[in-house]
Specification:
The complex is a heterodimer of chains A (about 260) and B (about 100). Chain A has about 260 residues and is mainly alpha-helical. Chain A is built from twelve helices and three strands, in the order H-H-H-H-H-H-H-H-H-H-H-H-E-E-E. In chain B, a hairpin with a 5-residue loop joins strand 3 and strand 4. The longest helix of chain B has 13 residues. The chains are: A mainly alpha (about 260), B alpha+beta (about 100).
Amino acid sequence: MRLITTCTAALLLPVLLAAQGGSKQQSPADLLHAIFSAELSKQNSAYRAASTKLRQSDAYKQAVAAKDRAKMTELRSTLERPDTKGLAQKAMDAAGQFEGDGAVKILSWAAINGRDTDIVKAVAAQLQGKHMKSAALVDLLENGRVLSRPLGAEGADAFLSQVIAESPHDVVKAWAFYWKSIAFSGRDASDDQLAKGAVLAAQAEKLAGNHWLGDKIRGPKFKAEKLQIGLVAPNIAGEDIDGVKFQLEDYRGKVVVLDFWGFW
Amino acid sequence: MIPHERSLVEQMKDKPFALIGINSDKDKDYFHSKAKEMGVTWRSFWNGPRGTSGPISSKWGVRGWPTIYVLDHKGVIRFTGTRGEKMTAAVEQLLGEIE
């Protein structure tokens, strides 16, 4: 089933390209990106549903009751996991049909979602070879965490340095500075490393402008200055899960528990 | 966590109290199916398609999940990180301060 669906995605490509015609709504690369995302989302849902069903099965409950970890692992191994690597490989193949930003978007999707060292390495090499000036690099750099393990500390740093040297886009460069700064912020970081990290973070914040990366960098300072016991909590204005607008201040007069959470 | 919060909301339903989430699930469909399964009735801001990297948690510098703030009826932050029975006790104390 899975094979058929992903092949369909690849087969659809020429149709998508043709359908594009004069319309400027969504590029073929965006459409393909959406198809890959939808397929992955479908596989994730199927996996979660199967996992829930397994946990409710008698065999699994018995294994849990008996604390039989080997049996639990064995039962879980029968679940069909999302084929992230296979999808990423197909995305990489498909990326060859695009130029410029379109190729970068599809390659980035593969690196972010493939969860595979070789794919990340191959994507990084392609991007470093001919896409360093693309604005679409922001997709990958927003998820820059995926680079560090496959490329290694030095490889990741070289990638980010090349982005900073060659990209004409402030937001792209801001992300590169940000991930370089993160590399200096580990638990074991020395004072010297922390100071270097702070300099890089400041450069990132400056380049980020109104992009949300700026908020992310300012987060710890915001927390230290505004989120202390005894201070009025800053307002939050947003939308609920159904898209209805509301704000924290609507609840003045009530005791409020504010809970940052998720099911994941 | 969710079972406790569900019972807290139920217990305080006639009081001037609200549990407000900042939900960081990327996938709204997944949220809806789980919310139904787990009996989540309270309102949440949605942190957007970036999930835990969404705009609200980025701005608030949230590093760990869950992160909890308990506010009194004037909107003042009074407790942080309170969970379970401590959360219930904090809410009861602050409800006692109204009037």
